[in-house]
């Protein structure tokens, strides 16, 4: 019984520390937003990927970085309407 409580408390700690880990009430939209933002921040953080995207899009790295930062605002579009019960 102690192991079960320990694992549960560790999971709660991870969920409070990292927003992308989600929880039982995370909607599909929230999960996808977290995934997109994590991906975009990874692209910005890895200089080689940023260079690759810049060459593929025929843009300078600063423009690609700016575009990725803009996409992080609403990566999946506006949130869906909530249905309160």
Please characterize this protein's 3D structure.
Helix content is 66%, strand content 0%. The protein has helices spanning 2-17, 28-45, 47-57, 61-71. It is flat and about 55 Å long. The chain has 85 residues and is mainly α.
Quick description:
The protein is mainly alpha-helical and 85 residues long. The protein has four helices and no strands.
Fold topology:
Elements: H1 2-17, H2 28-45, H3 47-57, H4 61-71
Relevant terms:
85 residues; 66% helix; mainly alpha
Percent helix: 55-70%
Major sheet summary line: none
Number of helices: 4
The whole-angstrom Rg is 18 Å
N-end to C-end Cα span: 35 Å
Uncertain regions spanning at least 5 consecutive residues:
none
Shape: flat
Strand content: under 5%
Number of strands: 0
Average pLDDT for all residues: 85
Structural class: mainly alpha
How are helices and strands ordered from N to C?
HHHH
Q: In terms of quaternary structure, what is this?
A: single chain
């Amino acid at each position: 019984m102690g192991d079960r409580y320990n694992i549960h408390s560790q999971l709660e700690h991870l969920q409070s520390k990292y927003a992308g880990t989600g929880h039982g009430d995370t909607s599909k939209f929230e999960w996808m937003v977290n995934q997109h933002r994590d991906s975009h921040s990874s692209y910005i953080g890895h200089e080689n990927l940023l260079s690759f995207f810049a060459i593929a899009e025929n843009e300078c790295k600063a423009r690609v970085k700016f575009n990725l930062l803009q996409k992080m605002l609403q990566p999946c579009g506006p949130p869906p309407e909530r249905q309160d019960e």
